[in-house]
Amino acid sequence: MSNTPSAEAARLRTQLELYNYEYHVLDAPTVPDSEYDRLLQRLRTLEAEFPELVTPDSPTQRVGSEPLAQFAQVQHEIPMLSLDNAFNAQDMVDFERRLRDRLGAHAPATIEYACEPKLDGIAVSLLYRDGKLERGATRGDGRTGEDITHNVRTIPSIPLRLRGDGYPGVLEVRGEIYMPRAGFEAFNARARELGEKPFVNPRNAAAGTLRQLDPRLTAQRPLQMCCYSVGHVEGGALPETQSAILDRLQQWGLRTNPESEVVNGIEACDQYFQRLEAKRDSLAYDIDGIVFKVNALDLQERLGFVSRAPRWAIARKFPAQEEMTRLLDVEFQVGRTGAITPVARLEPVFVGGVTVSNATLHNADEIERLDVMIGDTVVIRRAGDVIPQVVSIVPDRRPDDARPVEFPTVCPVCDSPVERGEGEAALRCLGGLVCGAQRKAALRHFVSRKAMDIDGLGEKLIDQLVDTDQVKTVADLYALPRDVWLGLERMGEKSTDKLLAAIERSKATTLPRFIYALGIREVGETTAASLALHFGSWEALSSAAESVLLEVEDVGPVVADHLRQFFDSPDANTVVAALRTAGVHWPDVERPSEDATPLAGQTWVVTGKLEALGRSEAGAALKQLGAKVAGSVSAKTHCVVAGPGAGSKLKKAQELDVTVIDEAAFLALLQEHGVSL
Ligand code: 5U1
Fold first, then answer.
1. Which stretches of 92-248 are assigned E, i.e. beta strand?
2. In 69, 576, 646, 662, which residue has its Cα 20 to 30 A from 260's Cα atom?
3. Does residue 391 share a domain with residue 354?
């Protein structure tokens, strides 16, 4: 091996390109980031010492070019097309019928389709000449775009030179540049911290970033590229199907979508659509539909184009996740801990597949940030099962009679005084158990599945019990005579007996469930499980000093303070005592000995939807066995527990050959190790 500086620089570049490809294109890094950084630093040092060794495609040259004065225009050799849309299964059937009509005798018995998610990003074209990235351009109007080479060079998943060989002399690749959700959230959090204006959504963030004239700013933003087709090609041939082209692009170092699949027939397209729709929220990026392309290029050629879209492709859109509507009023809801939350009452609007007439506005800070007034036209977002959000307002649609949102000066439910604690965003009702809203919310929480799990005690019954003052605290539930239950609306003999049996059953509980059920501020399922595991008994927990509480995983000063306040409260102690007198009991939790932590030193990941356990319960059980629970999969992950709907984490685990088990196997493992749930 030659040891000249030139040979070393070449070796470093090859190594860095490989690591970059593994990390950004395959999602399967083989070395830690520190090793990449070390090699990059060595290359920088060499290039500083021997400037003649710097090449335009060196990994050191991604960042640092000077800002542009303006964007140059680029003519696309082959126009960048758009896609026809489909909005339901019938549109897809019609699409296939049109294909068959046009193909006539050339139509195969079953048409193969290449399917992949439609990313909600910015369409771009990359031009490689002799394998080197020469130009990046936006789609623009399809014929003329803007030269954004300086910016695309900073995106790590875009290779500055292609890998391997066999690529055409001129290869134009097309795809979408987007900002993954996590990067978007992190970027916005930082922008808010710095008092800068956050972006409305990841698409705007990607568009705004690509329109930066200064590539040093672009380099700081987490953009990615996913390629989906080729444009202009010279001096070389490509495979004869869309799917094989994608495989080839990936081999040449370009990122393609790992969800891409080939399916047979339009019914299978529908199944793929349903599958991805169910998975949509667990993907790392926003998608707004699925693109279906006739896989065979010879058929594509026969089908040709209509105006600006190919006949051989279609985008089936998901129901829109953002829509506009009018803010009719703002009302205030009081939660379990007294927090008063403003709720937007909206002119009903169909968004994310359902009709929405309410959306949360969080708190006064959020209202100020949005600069929202009653009467405004607002943008509502509903993604998956997440509570609808007001994303922004449309300033130029503000009516003359718009009025500001006024916060209540007393509790809207019980008229008790309210306060906004120091450093807190939420206004809080100080009524405690006097406040009907807090009582109802506390009861709903207490009976919920992950708490005392009292099946059949729903919101309507709770409302009646509180409104008639028959139940003041959660302990009263265990003392109500049968005829009170029987006297409630919609309660017959049978339903009363069933409910009383459920209440009786709930008395035999576990310490984590009991702690969680009490609804102590900031104490969720995971913290409750950690507390139970750490202290083992209610007595040890409730007598622990704040400094001892702080030793528990997940417990910081705020939570420790809430816990101590709860344990020191005479009212809270009365309720706990009444519950125990009523017969609520649990076994102490044994603190695991070394033998009882068989997963010590291992890192586990839980992904997808688990049926029997909540994800945090699963996490708590793993911790009890000594495992560390991580949020992402890497080569160091020992095992992944995957439920239905598991997406990129499962795929990554499979790529990295990490053991994957389903929920049944996980439950068996817990049982084997004597973990009680
Ligand atoms: N995933 C994907 N998005 N997308 C957008 N494929 C795809 N294909 C497109 C467009 C505009 O156009 C084809 C006609 C190449």
1. 112-119, 122-129, 132-138, 144-146, 170-178, 224-234
2. 662
3. yes
Distance CA 513, CA 452 (A): 6
291 lines ligand 1 (CB under 6 A): yes
Read off the pLDDT of each residue in 229-250 and give the average, rounded to a whole number.
Answer: 96
Q: How much is the average pLDDT of 546-562?
A: 91
The Å distance, Cα 80 to ligand 1 centre, comes to 9
Show the tokens assigned to 432.
């405690």
User: Model-level pTM greater than 0.90?
Assistant: no
Q: In terms of residue numbers, what domain contains 649? A: 595-672
Residue 67's pLDDT band (cuts 50, 70, 90): low
- Active site residues per annotation: 118
Same domain, yes or no, for 325 and 312? no
Look at ligand 1, atom 3, and give the residue with the nearest C-alpha: 118
**Residue 118 CB–ligand 1 contact under 6 Å:** yes
Residue 420 lies in a domain: no
Atom nearest to 83 CA in ligand 1: 11
Read off the pLDDT band of 570 (50, 70, 90).
very high
Give domain status of residue 616, yes or no.
yes
Q: How far is CA 5 from CA 12, 46, 47, 403, 623, in A?
A: 10, 7, 9, 70, 50
260 or 646, higher pLDDT: 260
Most confident of 171-175, 428-432, 608-612, 615-619: 171-175
- Whole-angstrom Cα distance, residue 296 to residue 479? 71
The full length of the chain comes to: 677
Closest residue by Cα to atom 15, ligand 1, is: 229
**Does ligand 1 lie within 6 Å of residue 259's CB atom?**
no
Asked whether 115 and 256 are in contact (CB, 8 A), the reply is no
> How far apart are the CA of 228 and the centre of ligand 1, in A?
6
